[in-house]
UniProtKB/TrEMBL annotation:
<dbReference type="InterPro" id="IPR011990">
    <property type="entry name" value="TPR-like_helical_dom_sf"/>
</dbReference>
<protein>
    <recommendedName>
        <fullName>Tetratricopeptide repeat protein</fullName>
    </recommendedName>
</protein>
């Protein structure tokens, strides 16, 4: 028992001796530093060795923590001298010679001020690397954030002179918020590292016009305000363009119109969202980062994108008439080669676009003519009725009525002719329809009622009066048609199956009218009429021979039959009623009244 007591007493003596030595060495260093003389190498080395000795005896001791409080107090004093120890020039050599364990922290002390300065230098270096690299890697960004963490950990030991430097560096860091917050990388890092909420650099908000940490500058707000104004105007152009593209629900948009709509609408949604919504801003910011636009110009970058979108939207809107002209020209080319279905599709696309008045009227006429060429007469009539030029409308409608006439739809033809009596062609055609309707009812060879004769004759005389005031190719063609119709009118005054002696005058007048038409026909350019006047003249001569009971012997096919066969073979679809009348006149069993 006495031996144990003696052993504990010896341990206590060793510990007390080691603590005393440690304290004396520490006092010596403290006094040197306080006098600003600087601790000598001998004093610092003694201090470190004293701490070594204390560690040695303490680690072997089994006396508990009786002296622990005192040792902790002395260690705190030692740490306060870390600058003097760490900055001594001989420290490196001592460590190489004595090779203290890594766990001997007093040998590993560093200068807190120097460490702080190094942390700031590292922070600045990594920040500069991010600023100069237009597309920094995630590793470089993560290193920057870790460097800022290091600065935060030594902030309490920083000299006051360095506080301003950190503030400036933090300002520069916030300017890189778009680069740092690119994509969702910050979220992933926060989930892994779980930084404290007060370390704002891990929670940067990627906003174009500032954040809670960095209020927006006047320049940012100005750029954003102008951007929103540009987008509002661009939106109005986009809506107007879209309304044009879908102005006719029955006419679908082609590929070019779809692409223009998608480009405008997509760009508008993207940039508008980028200016006024957080999610949109993130998308736009990633675009700006990818475009390598410096952060300080990213507000201006958004303005440039908005302005560009405005120019594109305005350009498309301003060129809508050119789109219409292009569709119209394509339709004209297709119509010229007989591709009427495709031409109609182009014309209908052109109708959706704003055009000048004269071109709009020409488009309507061309579309109507394409429908007419395809035999869609009702649709053609709908287009012709939209033409504002009365004379142009009359010409087209009269031509359309003739198509109805050729189809045997005399009622529809007649209703059109009656609307345009001021037009000589229409008046002439109306008189012709009255004749054809009446002759059709009496079997083509019977005698027409006197009322119908007078009505038709009235219209022919009206046309002749108008023709007397003109002398041109148009009037010559009309003169030819009136002469033909008047010849038919004279036939309509005779019952060809049972003519009366006094009917000779009508047959002679008919022959004269057909002869007049034939003379004009010879002067006109070749047309689809194909010699109708000559054929009528041959048949009129044949009827006169029959009326006079003359027997003519022909070599081969009689001239009147030959001309009928030719017209029937080449132009049947164009002259249905003429051929019916000619056929009836040739086949009638005309008996001489003598």
């Amino acid at each position: 028992m006495d031996k144990i007591q003696e052993s504990k007493s010896a341990e206590r003596t060793q510990i007390d001796s080691a603590i005393a030595r440690y304290e004396i060495a520490l006092d010596r260093v403290d006094e040197s530093v306080d006098r600003e003389e600087g601790a000598t190498g001998e004093a610092i080395l003694e201090l470190l060795l004293a701490r070594d000795r204390l560690h040695e005896v303490w680690s072997r001791s089994q006396l508990g923590d009786r002296s622990a409080k005192r040792i902790v107090e002395l260690d705190n004093r030692l740490r306060q001298q870390s600058a003097a120890i760490a900055n001594h020039t001989e420290l490196k050599h001592w460590k190489q010679s004595l090779n203290p364990p890594e766990s001997f922290w007093w040998w590993q002390l560093s200068d807190p001020v120097r460490d702080s300065l190094r942390a700031i230098e590292h922070y600045e270096r990594t920040l500069t690397a991010i600023e100069t690299d237009r597309r920094p890697s995630s590793e470089a960004i993560l290193e920057l954030l870790a460097a800022r963490d290091r600065v935060e950990s030594v902030r309490d030991r920083l000299p006051k002179a360095q506080i301003a430097a950190i503030v400036e560096l933090d300002r520069r860091l916030k300017q890189q918020r778009l680069t740092i917050a690119r994509g969702n990388q910050l979220i992933g890092w926060r989930n892994t590292l779980k930084p404290p909420a007060d370390r704002w650099w891990w929670y940067l908000n990627p906003t174009l016009i500032g954040s809670e940490e960095e209020p927006a500058s006047l320049w940012d707000w100005l750029c954003t305000g102008i951007s929103i104004g540009c987008l509002a105007i661009a939106a109005s152009f986009t809506v107007s363009t879209y309304e044009v593209f879908k102005s006719n629900q029955q006419i679908g948009r082609d590929l070019a119109q779809h692409l223009a709509t998608i480009a405008q609408a997509g760009g508008l949604v993207l940039v508008t969202g980028g200016a006024v919504t957080k999610q949109g801003q993130k998308i736009v910011e990633n675009i700006l980062i990818s475009a390598r636009i410096p952060p300080r110009w990213q507000g201006a970058g958004t303005l440039m994108i908005s302005s560009g979108l405005l120019l594109v939207s305005w350009g498309i809107y301003a060129n809508l008439p050119k789109w219409g002209i292009d569709y119209f020209n394509k339709g004209e080319k297709l119509a010229q080669i007989g591709q009427y279905s495709q031409a109609i599709a182009q014309y209908r696309q052109a109708q959706k676009f704003p055009l000048q008045r004269n071109l709009e009227q020409q488009l309507i006429a061309s579309l109507g003519e394409a429908y007419e060429a395809r035999g869609e007469l009702e649709k053609a009539q709908e287009q012709y009725q939209l033409i504002g030029d009365r004379d142009r409308q009359a010409d087209l409608m009269v031509g359309l009525a003739r198509r109805y006439e050729d189809r045997g739809q005399l009622d529809r033809a007649k209703s059109i002719y009656e609307k345009f009596l001021n037009n000589a062609r229409s008046a002439n055609a109306l008189g012709r329809v009255i004749l054809l309707e009446g002759l059709q009812q009496v079997g083509w060879t019977g005698k027409l009622p006197e009322a119908d004769v007078r009505q038709a004759e009235f219209y022919f005389e009206l046309v002749e009066h108008q023709l007397s005031q003109h002398d041109n190719l148009y009037s010559e063609k009309l003169h030819y048609q009136v002469a033909l119709n008047k010849g038919i009118l004279r036939w309509a005054q005779v019952d060809l199956a049972q003519p009366q002696p006094e009917d000779l005058i009508f047959l002679l007048q008919a022959y004269g009218n057909f002869q007049e038409a034939f003379q004009v026909e010879q002067l006109l350019p070749t047309t689809a009429d194909g010699g109708r006047a000559k054929c009528y003249l041959e048949i009129a001569g044949y009827l006169l021979d029959r009326f006079h009971n003359l027997q003519v012997n022909y070599r081969g096919v009689p001239p009147h039959q030959a001309c009928y066969d030719r017209i029937n073979a080449l132009y049947r679809s164009d002259f249905i009623h003429d051929l019916e009348l000619m056929d009836a006149a040739i086949g009638v069993n005309l008996k001489s009244p003598e």
